[in-house]
Amino acid sequence: MSDATRLSVFKTYKLYVGGKFPRSESGRVYEVTDSKGKWLANAPLSSRKDARDAVVAARKAFGGWSGATAYNRGQILYRVAEMLEGRREQYVREVADAEGLSKSKAAAQVDAAIDRWVWYAGWTDKIAQVVGGGNPVAGPYFNLSSPEPTGVVAVLAPQESSFLGLVSVLAPVIATGNTAIVVASEKSPLPALSLGEVLATSDLPGGVVNVLSGRTAEIATPLAAHQDVNAIDLAGADDVLAKELEIAAADNLKRVLRPQPVDYAVTPGIDRMTAFLETKTVWHPTGSLGASGSSY
Amino acid sequence: MPTNASAAAHALTDVAASDSTLRRFLHGLPGVDAVGLEGRAASLGTRSIKTTAKAYAIDLAISMVDLTTLEGADTPGKVRALGAKAVHPDPTDRTTPPTAAVCVYPDMVATAKEAVAGSTVKVASVATAFPAGRAPIAVKLADVREAVSAGADEIDMVIDRGAFLAGNYMKVYDEIVAVKEACGAARLKVIFETGELSTYDNIRRASWLGMLGGADFIKTSTGKVAVNATPANTLLMLEAVRDFRAQTGIQVGVKPAGGIRTTKDAVKFLVLVNETAGEDWLDNHWFRFGASSLLNDLLMQRQKLATGRYSGPDYVTVD
């Protein structure tokens, strides 16, 4: 059979929730087009119930993921980068379609995204040294601060940078032990939905990352009001939506990261990691204060 | 009830006259169409219950919960906490109805009774060497008497599945009758452990056997085996209590137990009740859920309906 007669095999893009690939509970889909308006695929149009299910999955995964050693998390995130590398061609095509880039520019974006993932993989067991440590106190105590993950984080992925932007907001959240619900870019969700397929085959426990596609405002509203979500990153919200979500998020004192202009091409620093960390400080007696007068 | 119903009731008393009449009766019950039964249960599970109907269903389900703790590690403190939760399931919202009962082991009955004193919450106790039921009859009866004298309002007994599966129906029947007598004023729930009865035909036979023996409630399972309450086996038992009332005029309650964890599941069971046995059973005197984690999910859904926001496990008790 010649290539010309072969029927094309269309891909069904699905959500990634709790380590599985469900369709939207609502059964709805919407058309995703490339930058010129040509149809690419139908993506699931998630409802608030999909958001609720994703929160349940993320909460369930939190104990295991936050309890895993930092070293183990780093290994798993590095494995994700390895899997991304194997699918490089696919992401280049999806990013080129979504953002109207030339193949070489799209390739540069994908390479930068994979490198960013490796960069964050390296941070998992180093962040504690940077933002935690021993504090000198006036008394015979060890006083230790250690950064702890905040919990379940809702992440609104950037609307314009469909892959590099997505990785830049997602990787720092999970690197420190949080679990995430990602709302993909509304206009170009395909790279994010494909990322779910990579995460599913990277030893990342199901539920640590949950990917939803659809109307950002429709999914983000119940997430911002949800009592079991601990933090929200508003990177993908416009000013009006961000304000509404921040008000809803105040109800259970969620940590909120406001949208800010970001150049995703440059090395990001640790701000996105520390935004979703809490500091736990413990006091511990130093031990015998014997006749020798030594405190050790 | 009309006279022919009491005549039928009289006919049913003769059923247990001897081992052979009992066997003839139970084996004469119509066979169960397994595919039809499961299909019917599944189709009733697709009903959409929303808004005010959902609010009604949630409150009704909360009022039907037998809040249960049956662990070897139960402490008096845990039982007291459970009792407090049964009386006020959601302390932040006093319009939440109390649960029907707390269900504990016999040695915890006195503690539980104290914890729910002054409320409508009943104390149920499992007895008769729960969950296996593998003990001499004298021990089982002593177990029941102890629980009743400690103040239990309801007794959950297990049938002797070994005797039932061996076809020794009379032994099972006699045990139920003896336990019923030992209960005195306490209501008797008879647990069949449907997961161990293998077939739907057996579940139907066990249901009738339990009701003939004088059960006030028939209950699916102990919650200690792999397969517990399912929509299909509960539907089958609901049909049995409906038919039993039609024949004898005696109403018997149903209690599915184990494996019901979400509000959605609970509402499906309520639909089964309404469509099979009828509205008369939509009351915690006649229908119960044996559950522990279900209550938290019901409370979270209730909060969601009240506030419009999804709630989370941080806002209900850890039990």
TrEMBL record, chain A:
Query: Which residue range or ranges hold the Aldehyde dehydrogenase domain?
Result: 25-256
Q: Does the keyword Plastid apply?
A: no
For the keyword Oxidoreductase, the answer is yes
Which species is this record about? Streptomyces lanatus
Could you list this entry's UniProt keywords, alphabetically sorted: Oxidoreductase
Q: What is this protein called?
A: Aldehyde dehydrogenase family protein
From TrEMBL, chain B:
Q: Which UniProt keywords apply?
A: Lyase, Schiff base
Pfam families registered for this protein in UniProt: DeoC
| Single annotated GO MF | deoxyribose-phosphate aldolase activity
Reaction catalysed by this enzyme: 2-deoxy-D-ribose 5-phosphate = D-glyceraldehyde 3-phosphate + acetaldehyde
Under which EC number(s) is this enzyme classified?
4.1.2.4
EC class, as a word, reads lyase
Question: Pathway it acts in?
Answer: Carbohydrate degradation; 2-deoxy-D-ribose 1-phosphate degradation; D-glyceraldehyde 3-phosphate and acetaldehyde from 2-deoxy-alpha-D-ribose 1-phosphate: step 2/2
The keyword Lyase is assigned to this record: yes
By sequence similarity, the record places it as follows: Belongs to the DeoC/FbaB aldolase family. DeoC type 2 subfamily.
Please identify the protein, giving its name as recorded.
Deoxyribose-phosphate aldolase
User: Top-down, what is the taxonomic lineage of the species of origin?
Assistant: Bacteria, Bacillati, Actinomycetota, Actinomycetes, Kitasatosporales
